[in-house]
Design goal:
Largest sheet: 7 strands, antiparallel
Structural class: alpha+beta
Strand content: 15-25%
Number of strands: 12
Helix content: 40-55%
Shape: globular
Radius of gyration: 20 Å
Order of helices and strands: HEEEEEEEEHEEEHEHHHHHHHHHH
Distance between the termini: 42 Å
Number of helices: 13
Length: 304
Amino acid sequence: MEDYNKIIESLEIRYIKAKNINILKPVTIDNNYEVENYLILVTGGEIKFGKEKERASAGDVIFVPGGRPISMSYGTGTPTILSKDDFLTNKDQFLKSYGEHSMGDEHYSYVAFDAKAFDSVNFFSSLDIPCFKIEENYKLAGLIKQINDEVKDSMPGRDRIVKVLTENMTIELIRYILNNSLFVEKLATNSTYFKDPRLIDIFTFIKENLSDDLSNKVLANVANVSEDYVGQYFKMLTGINPQDYIEYQRMEAAVNLLRTSKKSIRDIGKEVGYKDTAYFCRRFKMMFGIPAGKMRRRESLMNV
């Protein structure tokens, strides 16, 4: 249990956004990919997820981890099946945010958030945790509702309360995973981050040097191990090879810059380590299912 306390204490938890959404027409988004984690509370109707189209109905909470593609279906009936790119272009036809009162019988609320160990490692992504359903968890459901209510308010201290509620929500999610013995082996593996300072040094170095050479040779020098061994060492402790991890970190940083800056796509690509803009755009589209330019416009589309 001490390892789990260390994990929780190390987490940098950040609220990103929260919305109440009406489902206007049923839709399926294939290979939906998000950088951030989502907790979705179904408040009416149903949502299906994954290859097996597991069904969640009113009162259920769905955890959607960032960093991995998943099929999501909103609403009952025969859905329109769209790619992520097409969905973002036509989103207003299917989903619409609401304030105080929902329209119709199908709707849901969500909170998007980050949880990073040592402000570097995406905690849930590093565990390779799949999307899963949580039934009859009134604490989580209540926290999702509270966050959405608070976000709509303009009272002093709103941001502070949202931050505290998001941290509480994330810890309740981790407690649920632990109490139900979910992904125990992966959690045990993750605890190795807190026992090997060399791995933490690699994480920190990657985060601070995304625009530079991050070859295995460079990482080997950071960890003081051989170049031949560093890839095996990294994968043994994390489950992924270092270059795949680096690409994810670079793309995550690119998404943040696209959302928060007016820098050109060329400059953003260079800032996160891609000298070839065309290659950066190809890899971005392959990972997220939409062009980098459309990601820049995505925030306005998300605010349906």
